[in-house]
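Recall the central idea of this unit: under ordinary conditions, the amino acid sequence of a chain determines the structure it adopts. In this exercise we apply that idea directly, starting from the sequence alone.
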Amino acid sequence: MASLVLARLWPAGPGLRKLASLESRIALGLAGFSPKIRGLEKIPSGAAILVANHSGYLDFLICGAMLPSDARFVVKAELRSKTLVGGSLARIGHVFIDRHSTARSLADLDAVNALLSSGQRIVLFPEGTFSPDVGMRPFKLGAFRLACEAGVPIVPIAINGSRKALRDGTWLPRFERITMEVLAPLFGDGKEIADIVRLRDATAEAIAAHIEEPRLFAADITVPDSTTTTR
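Accordingly, the structure predicted from this sequence is:
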């Protein structure tokens, strides 16, 4: 709660994003977690879309603590209306995506594209959400369509230990070794649906090979999603 208050009082901009990153590390430390990261040097200095598997409530904190503080998250628009949370996330510089209104979603995507065009890095969870079921859910196509259309790389990120550390439906964390591994960037070969699907599948396969959970079921490649969000 204190971090959200500070986010409303601290001047918006890079300094606030660094503060949010520090607060994420402190929050994890107070909960008894000390995540380890490998491969941070693989993240390009320019525009890129960082995508990670999503298995628990801690994923946002883990990414916020371990990834470069200038990375912006794409979060679900429902949080925009939350009095304290929405304003704080907006001031930090994260982007909201409306999953229910096509018109609003397109406007939100313009904001994401503007960040990429200006050389920014954004963070997405392409599963869109998580559930109590152990395993990696199918990836939605939105992040990969953005990458192909903007001509920017996808950076796969594998997170282990998050689900066991704080299971869905519980509030009491348990000690668990948490690791994050940044994998080699992947690039799309074009802008057609087949190119987007290939990039999505290659990313899912790369992450699946570095996590301790199975893939739950085959992804649906027939309907492209307009967005991906965090929970």
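The chain has one domain: 2-208.
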